[in-house]
Amino acid sequence: MEDLVIRPMGPGDLAAIRDITWRGWDGMTFRELVEKRHGPLGSKSWRDWKADDVVAGCEGHPECVLVAELDGKVVGYATFHFSQAEGYGHVGNNCVDPDCRGRGVGTALNEAVLARLRELGARIVAVTTLEHDLPARRVYEKNGFVELVRSVTFTLDLSEGEE
User: Which residues of the chain have pLDDT under 50?
Assistant: First the structure.
């Protein structure tokens, strides 16, 4: 593989993280599914909501974000959270640039997050993904995650039938 570097996020990485988020989550977000069923939520598309949420999380907790670089260009990111009191870690948002998928970047990012959570003292680590997100599921399973539970999400449009 080219020169892959996994490192802590820096403030200069936010634009790349926003771009990767905007381009990389097709078919893999709850908001997109809601938008397909009910139309846009508020004044933004699901892509803009997702990108804004990811960037806000990165700004709020930059110590919990790793980025992947290939040949000096940011091509992926992964966020995580850790509760010292519980010894519990959670893998959050993570995405690889669509142009760089299939090269081990996601697996390397996930391995780096797990190593960081191990350093922090995590005993249990969880991650959540949509059932049909097979690439993410393969990464998690490759890194030793075992399915715990499936859940069902329902939506209801309260504006239907209003006159």
Answer: none
